[in-house]
Amino acid sequence: MTALISLDISDGLAHLTFARPDRLNAFDFEMGQQYRDACVTATSSPDVRAILITAQGPAFCAGGDVLAMAGAGVSGAEVTAGAHVIHEGMAALVESGVPVVLAARGAVAGGGIGLMLAADYVIAGEDLRVAGKYADVGLTPDLGVSTLLTRAVGERRALTLLLTSRELDAATALEWGAVAEVATDPDARAKDIARTWATGAARALGQAKRLVRASPPRGWSESLADEARTIGEAFEGEEARRRISAFAAASASRGGAR
Whole-angstrom Cα distance, residue 144 to residue 123? Predict the structure, then answer.
């Protein structure tokens, strides 16, 4: 099996790396399963005091690999099931008592936004670009985006990002509250923070994070279940099929670039 998510645990630090740079770290089903397994392993290990998430290549995550899914002829039910698998990994991070820091550079689109915001502290690269992109392929938010984005930036700004073509650069993402810092080398800065946590009061920090994350009124699992069902239904709709086909044609005309 190709390692699309790598996990290294040492000195109290679990380091997860997205390793599908040729597809801008867009998630397919296999990557989703590896992500779930890595998150569960990291959060359940008694030796882990902090978690660091980074990504290979120029982009953190372009969301779900809709071209691969459409090309494989998967069903809406399979899309829903795949979303649930990734949700299990995200829930492990969000609900754990382990602090999570993440470095994001380049493109963060669609479900990549949720994967980014599942971390407790986000360091953005100066080249960060955040965009919803769901409407471009006729799909609906998944991977916690409807919940996590709204909590991070507020309802009006979340709707702006999801209902228009608005794209956030690093400075605007910081101003809106989608990220905590902007750094020239986000990976190095995130690693420094993770090591500080791992050698410091990690248990207290983790419990503080858990309490804050548990505070909103709508249940996290309820939101995830709603998103997974909705995107599966959208995937089987005519609008999504038409837009994904157009997206595939445009991608092919660019020589496969995404």
Answer: 19
The answer to whether the CB of 86 falls within 8 A of the CB of 35 is yes
Q: What does the pLDDT look like over 176-222, one tens digit per residue?
A: 999 999 999 999 999 999 999 999 888 888 888 888 887 766 676 77
| Closest CA relative to residue 46, chosen from 119, 93, 98 | 98
SS (H, E, C) 148-205: HHHHHHCHHHHHHHHHCCCEEEHHHHHHHCCCCEEECCHHHHHHHHHHHHHCCCHHHH
DSSP 8-state class, residue 110: T
* Strands ordered across the beta sheet of 167-169: 107-109, 129-131, 167-169
Angstrom distance (rounded) from CA 205 to CA 29: 33
Contacts of 93 (CB under 8 A, 6+ apart): 39, 43, 51, 100, 118, 119
Q: Which residues contact 159 (CB under 8 A, 6 or more apart)?
A: none
pLDDT digits (tens, 9 = 90+) for 59-82: 999 998 888 887 788 888 999 899
- The superfamily in CATH containing domain 5-184+214-253 is 2-enoyl-CoA Hydratase; Chain A, domain 1 (3.90.226.10)
The DSSP letter of residue 64 is B
- What is the value of pTM for the model shown? 0.86
Virtual CA dihedral for 177, 126, 253, 234, nearest 10 degrees?
-20
